[in-house]
Amino acid sequence: MPKLTVENVGTFDVPAGKRLVQALTQDAGTDQLHACGGVSRCTTCRVEFIEGEPEKMTEAEKETLRVREVTEPGVRLSCQIACDHDMSVRLISRLEGSGRKDQGGAVADEIQPAPQWTTK
């Protein structure tokens, strides 16, 4: 089982292949946002990688980050990442202080849209 470390929250064993956004909300119990329901249409599920940033990304993530002009190093969309190795992240998009009524809609177990993999 991969280990997910969330800065200032703790370290958690996560089932291999689980979407990072789900691991953050279900396993780590955080208030990570995911307003579009985990389909790479917004950037509310952003996290910053401290260690273990994946080498690959989906075409959908790459395009969303480009369109939304997200250029900070290590900042990725948690809805487009599968937990397949140990990683350490910093939450940067949380319900607390966002003014939103909830974290977002239900997120499918599989990465949506169907992933087409590329490099960063």
From TrEMBL:
Extract the Gene3D superfamilies matched here.
3.10.20.30
Q: Which UniProt keywords apply?
A: 2Fe-2S, Iron, Iron-sulfur, Metal-binding
Q: Which residues form the 2Fe-2S ferredoxin-type domain?
A: 2-95
Q: Which residues form the signal peptide?
A: none
Which terms does the UniProt entry file under GO BP? P450-containing electron transport chain
Q: Which PROSITE patterns match?
A: 2FE2S_FER_2
Any single GO molecular-function term of the entry would be: electron transfer activity
Extract the ranges annotated as region (Disordered): 96-120
What family classification does the UniProt entry report for this protein? Belongs to the adrenodoxin/putidaredoxin family.
Protein's name in the database: Ferredoxin
Source organism of this protein record? Aporhodopirellula rubra
